[in-house]
Write a structure and sequence with these properties.
This protein is of the alpha+beta class. Helices cover about 30% and strands about 35% of the residues. The longest helix has 17 residues. InterPro entries: Restrct_endonuc-II-like, tRNA_endonuc-like_dom_sf, UPF0102_YraN-like.
């Protein structure tokens, strides 16, 4: 068991890095709203709040920075799925994008490094 998660289990690794990112953001003053929001349009790893802004957070992990690392793995198609899932979340909560300030952040975990990118896309 390296880094606290079982080797060979991608889901366990993903969960471990999502919790790590969550702790990182909580330490920086964000407030957790929900984890792993799922709808037919996609999944949002973390939804948090800072002030009056809802923050939809994608957590990406790559063991190495080869091929651009974790940040480069968020393709335009993935960004579109996240936007659609966020709109679904807002609708479920009776909110809309014109009345609720929102942003999309990325937490890129490359090996042991964490890089938080507010307003990533």
């Amino acid at each position: 068991m390296a880094n606290g998660y079982p080797e060979g289990s991608k889901r366990a690794q993903g969960d471990w890095h999502e919790r790590r990112a969550e702790r990182f953001l909580l330490d920086r003053g964000l407030i957790l709203i929900t984890r792993n929001f799922q709808c037919k349009l996609g999944e949002i790893d973390l939804i948090m709040r800072t002030g009056h802004t809802l923050v939809f957070i994608e957590v990406r992990y790559r063991k190495h920075r080869h091929f651009g690392g974790a940040a480069a793995s968020v393709t335009p198609a993935k960004q579109q799925r996240l936007r659609r899932a966020a709109l679904s979340y807002l609708q479920v909560k009776g909110l809309n994008e014109s009345s609720q300030s929102c942003r999309f952040d990325l937490v890129a975990c490359d090996g042991d490094d964490i890089n938080w990118i507010p307003n990533a896309f």
